Structure prediction request, 237 residues.
Amino acid sequence: MAVGIILLVGIVLALTIVRTEKTYKGSESHEEEKGDDDEVAAKGPHGGRFLSDGDFQIELTIYERGVPPQFRAYAYEKGKQIDPSEVHLTVALHRLGGQVDEIGFQKEGDFLRGDKTIEEPHSFDVKVAAERKGRTHRWEYSQVEGRVEMSPEAAKAAGIEIGTAGPVRMKTVLDLPGEIGLNQNKVAHVVPRLSGVVTEVRKNLGEKVKKGELIAVTREPRIGGSENGVHRIGAPF
Prediction:
């Protein structure tokens, strides 16, 4: 009976948690749909940002399928697509650091194509101006991508400093493991023509020697003609 009661309590708690989760998610989704236009941008039929001014609309999208990133714009009146040649469109991208990219448009099919590649990062403030039938429509919005905002206190605590890039003399250094050795084309190996035990070495490897200078002494009792089996080896050149 005790086990049955525990199982029953567990099932009731699980159902309560599931219902609470569903209610929370539904509420969250509802709030997002009711958010400000600046936070939740309207999407057009082509998946771009939908900008409206009365009965006139512009859908602005960044297209990069098989081509460098470029703006494509579609024009609408009362939600119905119109001939893009009726619209004169310009877009200004205000980037961090003060750089401004001015982009013009020309008709291509049923849309207007930007005349410049949109360089990375795609993070900027956008100002749009569209002229049609003697009237100018303007919009502004921000596109944030790969941007991190930090307070001055947080940047200071993290040791981050901001400065202006300037000219500098670059020096490229390539570290490679290596070994310093003698030039083998200028090294002569002196090999004795007899066997024996080296009893004395007068020169070290790499030292310079003169012709006839004593290098080493060997001893071999069985060598005929040598005094007490001692043979002196000198430099041959």
